[in-house]
Specification:
2 copies of one chain form a homodimer. Helices cover 32% and strands 24% of the residues of chain A. Chain A contains 8 helices and 15 strands. Chain A has 2 domains: 169 residues, Rossmann fold (3-Layer(aba) Sandwich); 155 residues, Dihydroxyacetone kinase, domain 2 (Hypothetical Protein Tm841, Chain: A,domain 3, 2-Layer Sandwich). Chain A has 332 residues and is of the alpha/beta class. In chain A, helix 3 links the parallel strand 5 and strand 6. Chain A is globular. A 7-stranded mixed β-sheet of chain A has the order 9-8-7-12-10-11-15. The longest helix of chain A is centred in the last third of the chain and has 17 residues. At the A-B interface, helix 1 and helix 7 of A face helix 1 and helix 7 of B.
Chain lengths: 332, 332
């Protein structure tokens, strides 16, 4: 790192230097915008604390997001940052925010929506709460399914649907998706300079959040295939999917997880899902919504219908997701 | 992990499950093959120890490799594995091996070439030694430039060039490329279960190899932009590139490096290269040749001419590199 406090802007500068054809940065607000935005579609935006890269700047572009608003590490972006993004990408069809269920994000997005509405910008909001670690659905945090909502609702917007339709589809993705995470090591926030919790060498933190907040349970090391079973069972039970149902699966590292472990664990998750008789329409393996340098993994499944499948497979061109119709897998 | 000793095959199974359209696995030999191989082109293969993912299975496919041969973690594949790969992908135009400068790999590839030649298979060999950490060029290890040689020579093979031409081009890439790595943490081999060296919290291991072997120097933490200068200066001096020269740059994490640090460091490297007056034709940022879970970074630069630029920008379709003509950047 260079100067403390500058890491988010510098990181965003790096992202835009790598993909100048796709995205641009407003350095005053740390907002990443899609280049060449359409004027006749619903604009889709998101935002949240940094430290979850490639989320969300990596998903800005054709077929997904029009703007990603980056707060400081693990800190909500401000109302003014969000309002600025809404003004920048607004179209006559309106601006849909698809964000995660965290208090600061909700307060600031809602406040920005009020300001935007005073400017006669049509706005709508969808909040993801897909993390099954917590029992109470109202309390559940938003995690990986948010990214699938951006992909699927992003395609709906790209097709020219009205904001009520795009919102309905984003909400359908949230309602049909579940995610669970575990950590083998904690992560450290640059500003704090210390670890968020401590783990013995043979312990797994189960039900971990994406900010290094402690999980709901601590378990001993188990083989990868057994961990896959424990995590998938939790998702399958909560989502109530059955043999023959079609799903999209996402298996990812949490920032510091080596490829070898990601790929072995992906194999074990896919084998177990197949054994349950679930049909995997598509899968992603890689890193999508991370927790700085944490070693661990998250698994998410989304029960899909024909509409979600069609929109998932629609073209997209962003730094991370580059899909052509029917491409089934992304590795990041 | 599941059973010790099974991690490489399981990891390769995961890779092939993720990209069944592009690659296939011979589980008996742990060889990854390109699907739908052409019969009228030079076959290009590589191999080496595992633990460097996405190398090399992630680079098998159209426009790059026909086979990747995976040894155990940080261990050369056997002569029989390599010979099997040569027999499988051989064409009348021959088989070119583009490997890295490690003793075990060289012995086993040369032995396999002898066996293949007894079967009347035409073979050639190119060995990369791009790591500038060591002064003596004969001793220099192969690192990131090997992947660029696969991309550029892979495109030459795809165009139908004869094996002498493809070899000349691979060698030209090696001769014009340099790489340097640093580590902030060591890595641990699953079979050994211990770290390869120890570092204090504020120390950087400079000139690190890709197997966790200690570097050539230990330095104190410096800001990212200063580290970029130190590393790039080393490359520029050794390669003797000057203002106005065109280059391709690769900035990567070493397996456990968070995105935020990769992107900030990429920004600093690109800014410094620009400041030197070097023209970056294209760049890659992500993870390409890693060291399990090591936190650190590698920087590589390749001085390019018109032939290398044309072949670099030719189409490729592999798990990691998916280029369409003139796409300038890949993130993995």
């Amino acid at each position: 790192m260079n100067k403390p406090g500058e890491e988010v802007r510098e990181m965003l500068e790096g992202l835009v230097m790598a993909f100048p054809e796709l995205i641009e940065l407003d350095p005053k607000y740390n907002n990443i915008y899609r280049k060449y935005r359409k004027k006749d579609k619903v604009a889709i935006i998101t935002g949240g604390g940094s430290g979850h890269e490639p989320a969300y700047g990596g998903f800005v572009g054709y077929g997904m997001l029009d703007a990603a608003i980056a707060g400081a590490v693990f800190t909500s972006p401000s109302t003014m940052q969000i309002y600025q993004a809404m003004k920048t990408v607004a179209t006559e069809k309106g601006v849909l925010s698809v964000i995660m269920n965290y208090t600061g994000d909700k307060i600031n997005f809602k406040a920005a929506m009020k300001l935007a509405e005073d400017d006669s910008i049509k706005t709508e909001l969808v909040i993801s709460n897909d993390d099954v670690a917590l029992k109470d659905k109202q309390m559940r945090r938003g995690t990986t399914i948010t990214v699938l909502a951006h992909k699927i609702a992003g395609a709906a917007a790209e097709e020219g649907m009205e904001i009520a339709e795009v919102k309905r589809i984003a909400q359908k993705v949230i309602d049909n998706g579940r995610d669970i995470g575990v950590a083998l090591t904690p992560c450290s926030v640059p500003a704090a300079g210390k670890y968020s919790f401590e783990l013995k060498e043979d312990e797994i933190e189960f039900g971990i959040g994406i900010h290094g907040e402690p999980g709901v349970q601590r378990i001993k090391y188990v083989p990868s295939a057994e961990l896959a079973k424990i995590m998938v069972d939790k998702l399958v039970e909560d989502l109530n999917v059955k043999k023959g149902d079609e799903i999209i699966a996402v298996v990812q590292g949490t920032g510091g997880t080596p490829y070898m472990e990601k790929l072995v664990f992906y194999r074990d998750v896919m084998n177990y899902l197949n054994g349950l008789g679930l049909k995997t329409y598509a899968s992603w393996v890689g890193e999508f919504l991370t927790s700085i340098e944490m070693q661990g993994t998250r698994v998410a499944i989304l029960k899909v219908d024909e509409e979600m499948k069609r929109l998932f497979s629609a073209p997209a061109l962003t730094p991370v997701v580059k899909t052509i119709p029917m491409a089934s897998t992304v590795m990041s």
